[in-house]
TrEMBL record:
Pfam families: CarboxypepD_reg, YceI. InterPro entries: Carb-bd-like_fold (IPR013784), Lipid/polyisoprenoid-bd_YceI (IPR007372), TTHA0802/YceI-like_sf (IPR036761). Residues 135-301 form the Lipid/polyisoprenoid-binding YceI-like domain. It comes from the Bacteria. Gene3D superfamilies: Carboxypeptidase-like, regulatory domain (2.60.40.1120), Lipid/polyisoprenoid-binding, YceI-like (2.40.128.110). SUPFAM superfamilies: Starch-binding domain-like, YceI-like. This is YceI family protein. Belongs to the UPF0312 family. PANTHER family: PROTEIN YCEI (PTHR34406:SF1).
Amino acid sequence: MLPVVAGQRRFWLVFWRKKDRRRPARGTTDRHALVPIPLTGGVLSGQVRDQQGGALAGTEVSVMDPADRRAVHVETDPFGRFAASLMPGRYRVRVEAGGYQQVTDVVEVSWGEHADMGHIVLGEDPALRPPRPGVFVIDGDHSSVRFVARHIGMSKVYGRFNRLQGQIRIAEPFEESSVDVVIDAASVDTNVAARDTHLRSADFLDVERFPELRFSSVRFVAHGGNRWTVDGDLTLHGLTSDVSLDTTFLGTAEWNGDRVGAVATTQLHREHYTLNWQQTIAKGLPVVGSTIQIQLDVQAIRQS
Protein backbone atom coordinates (compact mmCIF):
# COMPACT_ATOMS: atom_id res chain seq x y z
CA MET A 1 0.00 0.00 0.00
CA LEU A 2 1.37 3.40 -0.97
CA PRO A 3 1.71 5.98 1.78
CA VAL A 4 -0.65 9.01 1.69
CA VAL A 5 1.31 12.23 1.70
CA ALA A 6 0.02 15.54 3.02
CA GLY A 7 -0.89 16.86 -0.43
CA GLN A 8 -2.88 13.75 -1.26
CA ARG A 9 -4.70 13.90 2.06
CA ARG A 10 -5.73 17.51 1.36
CA PHE A 11 -6.96 16.48 -2.15
CA TRP A 12 -9.23 13.78 -0.79
CA LEU A 13 -10.65 16.06 1.94
CA VAL A 14 -11.54 18.71 -0.64
CA PHE A 15 -13.06 16.03 -2.91
CA TRP A 16 -15.38 14.66 -0.22
CA ARG A 17 -16.46 18.11 0.93
CA LYS A 18 -17.49 18.96 -2.63
CA LYS A 19 -19.26 15.63 -2.94
CA ASP A 20 -21.22 16.27 0.28
CA ARG A 21 -22.46 19.58 -1.16
CA ARG A 22 -23.87 18.02 -4.29
CA ARG A 23 -27.57 18.65 -5.04
CA PRO A 24 -29.97 16.17 -3.36
CA ALA A 25 -31.62 13.59 -5.57
CA ARG A 26 -35.16 14.21 -6.78
CA GLY A 27 -37.80 13.10 -4.30
CA THR A 28 -35.79 14.28 -1.31
CA THR A 29 -35.93 17.50 0.72
CA ASP A 30 -33.22 20.12 0.23
CA ARG A 31 -32.03 22.20 3.15
CA HIS A 32 -34.57 24.98 2.47
CA ALA A 33 -37.77 23.11 1.64
CA LEU A 34 -40.37 22.43 4.32
CA VAL A 35 -41.83 19.35 2.60
CA PRO A 36 -40.25 16.77 0.24
CA ILE A 37 -39.99 17.88 -3.37
CA PRO A 38 -42.16 15.49 -5.39
CA LEU A 39 -40.70 13.52 -8.30
CA THR A 40 -42.92 15.28 -10.84
CA GLY A 41 -43.22 18.77 -9.39
CA GLY A 42 -41.82 21.44 -7.11
CA VAL A 43 -42.44 23.06 -3.72
CA LEU A 44 -43.79 26.52 -2.90
CA SER A 45 -43.30 28.03 0.56
CA GLY A 46 -43.15 31.31 2.45
CA GLN A 47 -43.74 33.03 5.76
CA VAL A 48 -46.45 35.61 6.48
CA ARG A 49 -45.80 38.46 8.90
CA ASP A 50 -47.45 41.68 10.01
CA GLN A 51 -45.80 45.09 9.70
CA GLN A 52 -44.21 44.71 13.14
CA GLY A 53 -42.54 41.44 12.08
CA GLY A 54 -44.88 39.17 14.04
CA ALA A 55 -45.84 35.81 12.53
CA LEU A 56 -49.45 35.60 11.30
CA ALA A 57 -50.76 32.16 12.13
CA GLY A 58 -53.94 30.94 10.43
CA THR A 59 -53.47 33.15 7.36
CA GLU A 60 -55.25 31.75 4.29
CA VAL A 61 -53.04 31.06 1.27
CA SER A 62 -54.77 30.25 -2.02
CA VAL A 63 -52.76 29.15 -5.06
CA MET A 64 -54.57 29.59 -8.39
CA ASP A 65 -53.52 27.98 -11.68
CA PRO A 66 -53.55 29.83 -15.07
CA ALA A 67 -57.22 28.87 -15.55
CA ASP A 68 -57.99 30.58 -12.20
CA ARG A 69 -58.77 27.25 -10.54
CA ARG A 70 -57.65 26.81 -6.95
CA ALA A 71 -54.79 24.30 -6.93
CA VAL A 72 -53.96 24.61 -3.22
CA HIS A 73 -55.59 26.16 -0.15
CA VAL A 74 -53.63 26.09 3.11
CA GLU A 75 -53.35 28.02 6.37
CA THR A 76 -50.09 29.18 7.90
CA ASP A 77 -48.77 27.35 10.96
CA PRO A 78 -48.13 29.01 14.38
CA PHE A 79 -44.91 30.51 12.95
CA GLY A 80 -46.68 32.00 9.94
CA ARG A 81 -45.17 29.47 7.55
CA PHE A 82 -46.79 27.51 4.73
CA ALA A 83 -45.60 24.97 2.16
CA ALA A 84 -47.27 23.06 -0.67
CA SER A 85 -46.25 20.66 -3.43
CA LEU A 86 -47.32 21.72 -6.93
CA MET A 87 -47.00 20.66 -10.53
CA PRO A 88 -44.56 22.83 -12.51
CA GLY A 89 -46.15 26.02 -13.83
CA ARG A 90 -47.03 29.64 -13.21
CA TYR A 91 -49.37 30.37 -10.30
CA ARG A 92 -51.13 33.33 -8.73
CA VAL A 93 -50.81 33.29 -4.95
CA ARG A 94 -53.39 35.13 -2.80
CA VAL A 95 -52.59 35.71 0.88
CA GLU A 96 -55.31 37.04 3.18
CA ALA A 97 -56.01 37.37 6.89
CA GLY A 98 -58.85 39.10 8.71
CA GLY A 99 -58.03 42.72 9.47
CA TYR A 100 -55.18 42.88 6.95
CA GLN A 101 -54.95 43.96 3.34
CA GLN A 102 -54.80 41.11 0.85
CA VAL A 103 -51.53 40.44 -0.98
CA THR A 104 -51.38 38.80 -4.43
CA ASP A 105 -48.25 37.69 -6.28
CA VAL A 106 -47.28 35.53 -9.26
CA VAL A 107 -44.81 32.68 -8.75
CA GLU A 108 -43.15 30.22 -11.11
CA VAL A 109 -42.81 26.66 -9.76
CA SER A 110 -40.18 24.57 -11.54
CA TRP A 111 -39.64 20.85 -11.69
CA GLY A 112 -37.44 19.59 -8.85
CA GLU A 113 -37.05 23.10 -7.41
CA HIS A 114 -38.10 24.96 -4.26
CA ALA A 115 -39.83 28.31 -4.91
CA ASP A 116 -39.40 30.32 -1.73
CA MET A 117 -41.57 33.46 -1.52
CA GLY A 118 -39.66 34.61 1.55
CA HIS A 119 -41.37 37.01 3.96
CA ILE A 120 -44.82 38.18 2.90
CA VAL A 121 -45.84 41.28 4.86
CA LEU A 122 -49.53 42.11 5.33
CA GLY A 123 -50.51 45.66 6.16
CA GLU A 124 -53.40 46.57 8.43
CA ASP A 125 -56.77 47.07 6.72
CA PRO A 126 -57.97 50.56 7.76
CA ALA A 127 -61.60 49.55 7.13
CA LEU A 128 -61.43 47.03 9.98
CA ARG A 129 -59.91 49.20 12.65
CA PRO A 130 -61.97 49.42 15.87
CA PRO A 131 -64.60 52.19 15.80
CA ARG A 132 -64.21 55.40 17.76
CA PRO A 133 -65.39 55.21 21.40
CA GLY A 134 -69.11 55.28 22.16
CA VAL A 135 -72.14 53.25 23.15
CA PHE A 136 -73.89 50.94 20.66
CA VAL A 137 -77.27 49.25 21.17
CA ILE A 138 -77.69 45.76 19.72
CA ASP A 139 -80.14 45.65 16.81
CA GLY A 140 -82.25 42.60 17.64
CA ASP A 141 -83.79 42.52 14.16
CA HIS A 142 -80.36 42.04 12.56
CA SER A 143 -78.65 39.96 15.24
CA SER A 144 -78.96 36.32 16.22
CA VAL A 145 -77.82 33.71 18.73
CA ARG A 146 -77.72 30.26 17.14
CA PHE A 147 -76.80 26.89 18.62
CA VAL A 148 -76.06 23.37 17.40
CA ALA A 149 -76.41 20.13 19.39
CA ARG A 150 -75.77 16.50 18.51
CA HIS A 151 -78.71 14.09 18.45
CA ILE A 152 -77.92 10.40 19.25
CA GLY A 153 -74.41 10.99 17.97
CA MET A 154 -75.60 11.16 14.36
CA SER A 155 -77.41 14.26 13.16
CA LYS A 156 -77.29 17.86 14.36
CA VAL A 157 -80.17 19.88 15.76
CA TYR A 158 -80.08 23.59 14.92
CA GLY A 159 -81.80 26.27 16.94
CA ARG A 160 -81.76 29.92 17.88
CA PHE A 161 -83.05 32.43 20.39
CA ASN A 162 -85.34 34.93 18.72
CA ARG A 163 -85.19 37.77 21.26
CA LEU A 164 -82.07 39.45 22.62
CA GLN A 165 -80.99 42.94 23.65
CA GLY A 166 -77.85 44.54 24.96
CA GLN A 167 -75.16 47.18 24.68
CA ILE A 168 -71.59 47.40 23.41
CA ARG A 169 -69.40 50.10 24.95
CA ILE A 170 -66.35 50.93 22.84
CA ALA A 171 -63.54 52.36 24.93
CA GLU A 172 -60.10 53.84 24.31
CA PRO A 173 -57.99 51.73 24.44
CA PHE A 174 -60.21 49.15 22.72
CA GLU A 175 -59.11 46.42 25.16
CA GLU A 176 -61.18 48.16 27.85
CA SER A 177 -64.43 47.88 25.88
CA SER A 178 -67.33 45.84 27.25
CA VAL A 179 -70.44 43.94 26.15
CA ASP A 180 -73.63 43.09 28.00
CA VAL A 181 -76.30 40.87 26.43
CA VAL A 182 -79.65 39.62 27.72
CA ILE A 183 -81.43 36.74 25.94
CA ASP A 184 -85.06 35.77 26.42
CA ALA A 185 -84.91 32.06 27.32
CA ALA A 186 -88.51 31.43 26.24
CA SER A 187 -87.67 32.57 22.69
CA VAL A 188 -85.76 29.33 22.00
CA ASP A 189 -86.72 28.03 18.57
CA THR A 190 -85.68 24.80 16.84
CA ASN A 191 -88.59 24.79 14.37
CA VAL A 192 -90.21 21.82 16.16
CA ALA A 193 -92.95 22.88 18.60
CA ALA A 194 -92.80 19.77 20.82
CA ARG A 195 -89.03 20.00 21.16
CA ASP A 196 -89.19 23.73 21.94
CA THR A 197 -91.73 23.06 24.69
CA HIS A 198 -89.40 20.46 26.18
CA LEU A 199 -86.45 22.87 26.04
CA ARG A 200 -88.46 25.49 27.94
CA SER A 201 -89.41 22.97 30.65
CA ALA A 202 -87.62 22.23 33.93
CA ASP A 203 -85.66 19.48 32.16
CA PHE A 204 -83.63 22.11 30.33
CA LEU A 205 -83.92 25.92 30.47
CA ASP A 206 -86.71 26.04 33.08
CA VAL A 207 -87.88 29.42 31.77
CA GLU A 208 -90.46 29.88 34.54
CA ARG A 209 -87.66 30.09 37.14
CA PHE A 210 -84.89 31.45 34.90
CA PRO A 211 -86.44 33.65 32.19
CA GLU A 212 -83.14 35.18 30.99
CA LEU A 213 -79.65 34.24 29.89
CA ARG A 214 -77.08 36.96 30.59
CA PHE A 215 -73.56 37.55 29.30
CA SER A 216 -71.24 40.26 30.64
CA SER A 217 -67.71 40.66 29.35
CA VAL A 218 -64.70 41.08 31.64
CA ARG A 219 -61.85 41.38 29.11
CA PHE A 220 -61.06 41.98 25.41
CA VAL A 221 -57.88 40.29 24.13
CA ALA A 222 -56.38 41.17 20.72
CA HIS A 223 -54.98 38.46 18.42
CA GLY A 224 -54.00 40.63 15.47
CA GLY A 225 -56.08 42.04 12.65
CA ASN A 226 -59.79 41.88 13.37
CA ARG A 227 -59.66 38.82 15.65
CA TRP A 228 -60.33 39.10 19.37
CA THR A 229 -61.23 36.97 22.34
CA VAL A 230 -63.99 38.37 24.52
CA ASP A 231 -63.88 36.74 27.96
CA GLY A 232 -66.93 37.03 30.18
CA ASP A 233 -69.47 35.47 32.50
CA LEU A 234 -72.56 33.66 31.26
CA THR A 235 -75.49 33.21 33.63
CA LEU A 236 -77.73 30.34 32.53
CA HIS A 237 -80.19 28.23 34.47
CA GLY A 238 -79.31 30.16 37.65
CA LEU A 239 -75.57 29.43 37.46
CA THR A 240 -72.68 31.61 36.25
CA SER A 241 -69.64 30.26 34.44
CA ASP A 242 -66.82 31.86 32.48
CA VAL A 243 -67.01 31.80 28.68
CA SER A 244 -64.56 32.85 25.95
CA LEU A 245 -65.95 34.13 22.67
CA ASP A 246 -63.71 33.82 19.60
CA THR A 247 -64.68 37.08 17.94
CA THR A 248 -64.19 38.55 14.48
CA PHE A 249 -64.89 42.27 14.02
CA LEU A 250 -66.60 42.90 10.66
CA GLY A 251 -66.19 46.67 10.52
CA THR A 252 -68.50 49.68 10.45
CA ALA A 253 -71.22 50.82 8.04
CA GLU A 254 -73.70 53.67 7.62
CA TRP A 255 -77.29 52.43 7.26
CA ASN A 256 -80.04 54.01 9.34
CA GLY A 257 -77.30 55.09 11.70
CA ASP A 258 -73.66 54.33 12.44
CA ARG A 259 -73.38 50.53 12.78
CA VAL A 260 -70.78 47.96 13.84
CA GLY A 261 -70.84 44.21 13.24
CA ALA A 262 -69.13 41.14 14.66
CA VAL A 263 -69.45 37.36 14.72
CA ALA A 264 -68.39 35.14 17.62
CA THR A 265 -68.29 31.45 18.46
CA THR A 266 -67.90 29.37 21.59
CA GLN A 267 -69.02 26.06 23.03
CA LEU A 268 -70.89 25.30 26.23
CA HIS A 269 -71.04 22.17 28.36
CA ARG A 270 -74.55 21.58 29.66
CA GLU A 271 -73.26 20.08 32.91
CA HIS A 272 -71.66 23.41 33.88
CA TYR A 273 -75.17 24.83 34.21
CA THR A 274 -76.83 21.69 35.67
CA LEU A 275 -78.73 21.08 32.42
CA ASN A 276 -78.32 17.40 33.16
CA TRP A 277 -81.42 15.86 31.61
CA GLN A 278 -80.42 12.87 29.55
CA GLN A 279 -81.69 9.70 27.99
CA THR A 280 -79.60 6.99 26.43
CA ILE A 281 -80.25 4.45 23.71
CA ALA A 282 -78.47 1.23 22.83
CA LYS A 283 -74.87 0.95 24.09
CA GLY A 284 -75.34 3.99 26.34
CA LEU A 285 -75.36 6.50 23.49
CA PRO A 286 -76.84 9.82 24.73
CA VAL A 287 -79.88 11.27 23.00
CA VAL A 288 -78.58 14.83 23.43
CA GLY A 289 -74.85 15.66 23.27
CA SER A 290 -73.30 17.39 26.27
CA THR A 291 -71.47 20.02 24.20
CA ILE A 292 -73.42 22.83 22.53
CA GLN A 293 -71.87 24.96 19.78
CA ILE A 294 -72.84 28.65 19.90
CA GLN A 295 -72.61 31.26 17.14
CA LEU A 296 -73.47 34.92 17.50
CA ASP A 297 -74.05 37.41 14.69
CA VAL A 298 -74.30 40.88 16.18
CA GLN A 299 -75.09 44.24 14.62
CA ALA A 300 -75.30 47.32 16.82
CA ILE A 301 -76.25 50.99 16.29
CA ARG A 302 -74.37 53.90 17.79
CA GLN A 303 -76.24 55.84 20.47
CA SER A 304 -73.50 58.23 21.55
